[in-house]
Design brief:
- The protein starts with 5 loop residues before the first strand and ends in a 5-residue tail after the last helix.
- It has seven helices and 20 strands.
- A nine-stranded mixed sheet has the order 3-4-6-5-7-11-9-10-12, with helices on both faces.
- It is an alpha+beta fold and about 325 residues long.
- A hairpin with a 5-residue loop joins strand 16 and strand 17.
- The chain has two domains: about 220 residues, Aminopeptidase (3-Layer(aba) Sandwich), CATH 3.40.630.10; about 80 residues, Beta Barrel (OB fold (Dihydrolipoamide Acetyltransferase, E2P)), CATH 2.40.50.100.
- The structure holds zinc ion.
- The site of zinc ion has 3 residues, from loops.
- One of its GO terms (molecular function) is hydrolase activity, acting on ester bonds.
- Its cofactor is Zn(2+).
- It holds the Pfam family AstE_AspA_cat.
- This is Succinylglutamate desuccinylase/Aspartoacylase catalytic domain-containing protein.
Length: about 325
Amino acid sequence: MAEGVFTYSGGRVEPGETDDIRYPVSETYLGDPIRIPVTIINGEKPGPTVFLSAAVHGDELNGIEVVREVAQEWSHEGLEGTLVCLPVLNVPGFMAQERYLPIYDRDLNRSFPGAEDSTSARRMAARIFSEFVEPCDLGIDFHTSTRGRTNMLHVRADTDDPQVGRLAKAFASHVIISSQGPGGSLRREATDAGVPTITVEMGEAHRFQRDLIDCALDGVVSVLAEYGLRPIDAVRWPGWRTIVRDQDEKTWLRANAGGVVEMHHTQGALVHEGDRICTITNPFKAESDTVRAPFDGVIVGVLENPLVYPGNPLCHLVRLDADTLRAVEQEQPNAE
Ligand SMILES: [Zn+2]
């Protein structure tokens, strides 16, 4: 790639230019192109190239608005580097309002880095990966909870990799859940290919949630400041932060009875050991099961659909150490 120029198959974006592109990644049953929207913003000054992607799961919408606002509403005057904005990766899933590619229900987010001579999902993934992910220096992939659940804004990243850890911290979320991520996922495969990448989880599917979108935009500002793309902005500190590495630092509380769930807390809430988290009742509203917090922690995710079988997940809880607990207690003085 020539100094400062962003090139892809079929085009180039010069320093100081912005291009909105519809890039073909597959074809429909009618033989028409399936094209993903891409905005390349090439700053006047050189610097890192960062991708921002959303809707690799087609019904996870919050990130779409984050990426669109960065691409279309921010001023990029003085940008030092290049932004590759990919607001809708899974176009067939987005059109059908479904998580997976409607073609055999494939998960596009298990199909990276892809291959040109493989399945439809992997061919699509290969186009996206080689054209718009591999040329980058780092990336942020936006997700929401799976349908029927919601979560507080948090980052998933392999913080044992120092470069990924730097990126994860720069996003300035309260909670970082550390893992390599599943094979075939965009963040795992991009990171393995030398493009440190984090996932941001925020809210629920099928919604635009303004408060979370604003919080994520602050995270993007902070990341771009950390890497010098927007030198006038400052790197944020979230007030308190916990990095959850091990299995014993987090747990999915599961239902031990079937029934209707009444949640007593929302995502992001602080709970102390023994606090009632939810109650599961039968159709006569006779109490059948009370679920209590096994340790002091923060509720990262909760179910939205209140109907459960025994074994269904109720709540994703992460443990807080004593210092972090005190910091959260100051932020949430009304916690039980
Ligand atoms: Zn997702």
